[in-house]
Specification:
4 strands; 4-stranded mixed beta sheet; DUF2268; 2 domains; single chain; Peptidase; alpha/beta
Length: 294
């Protein structure tokens, strides 16, 4: 197993310093090592389009501010901290599940788009993706909050990677339901909290952790299938509107808050750590948790 945190500091610096006509192709080179992340997408994937869709920084505006943000990431040793956090987390996870398959993992850290109101507002300047085994992508603006929880954010995405690695839970797009993603977000947060305490909570979910109305509403959607519904039920209405889904009356991060409550109830009842529960089916977690919480 090898964890490779791509040296995007050099790549982004080169892009931001280049003539505008060269920036797109130079950024494509930065992103090329992550092409396998989109292996299940139909057709040819435009890596620059995926960068933009994931709130990646633009190449034609606010360049001075983006350069300053890059300097802050370098000063914070962001790349080194992420690599050390992932290495430590894998060791803890393998201690809990000795026969665990841990794939080689490539990690992409890029700056986000300061001018994107959704990204800097409801999303709090952060977007992570660990859903494709072998790849982790972190897009962020270096706010105090995001710099303070770099390790926790990376470990959260690692948990997704390992839950769906070969030998783990199978994510079947034809049958997967909202409850699986809700539980997976709760498990990933619980694992990050196992290592880093409260900073392991994904910030968009924390305002609703103790909101019974939000929890009860999310529970009504746990058996809904078809992945186009997941944004609404997990990320909330503002995200749904941003990505063209149907809002269902939930605040930002509602599914994260509900997932934490479900997972915490299950772990407490079973006397398990989050690491030990990596491959527990979501249906089991939901059934046990709801029997205790209702």
């Amino acid at each position: 197993m090898t964890i490779t945190v791509l040296d995007t500091a050099v790549g982004m610096s080169s892009v931001l310093s280049a003539e505008e006509s060269r920036r797109h192709e130079m950024m494509r080179e930065v992103l090329t090592p992550m092409a396998g992340m989109f292996r299940y997408f139909p057709g040819d994937i435009d890596l620059l389009a995926m960068h933009a869709m994931s709130f990646g920084f633009p190449f034609d505006r606010r360049l001075d501010e983006t350069r300053g943000a890059l300097d802050r990431l370098v000063e914070a040793d962001a790349w080194g901290r992420i690599e050390r956090a992932l290495t430590d987390a894998v060791e803890i996870q393998v201690d809990a599940i000795p026969n665990l398959h841990v794939p080689d993992i490539k990690v992409l850290l890029v700056l986000g788009d300061l001018s994107d109101e959704y990204f800097m507002g409801p999303a709090r300047g952060f977007s992570g993706n660990g859903s494709a085994t072998g790849y982790i992508a972190l897009t962020l603006w270096p706010t105090k909050e995001n710099l303070g929880r770099l390790e926790a954010a990376a470990v959260h995405e690692l948990n997704h990677n390992l839950r769906y690695a070969p030998g783990g839970i199978i994510w079947d797009p034809t049958s997967v339901v909202v409850g699986e993603q809700v539980v997976s977000e709760g498990l990933a947060d619980a694992f990050a909290r196992q290592l880093y305490g409260r900073s392991g909570y994904t910030p968009i979910g924390t305002p609703h952790l103790n909101d019974d109305t939000v929890f009860d509403k999310v529970v009504t959607g746990l058996d809904i299938a078809e992945m186009q519904n997941f944004t609404s039920w997990v990320h909330g209405d503002e995200s749904a509107r941003r990505f063209g889904a149907e809002p269902v009356g939930l605040p930002t991060g509602a599914g994260y808050a509900a997932g934490n409550r479900l997972v915490d109830a299950y772990l407490a009842a079973q006397g398990m750590s989050a690491a030990e529960a990596l491959h527990i089916p979501s249906r089991e977690i939901i059934d046990v948790a709801l029997s205790l919480l209702r």
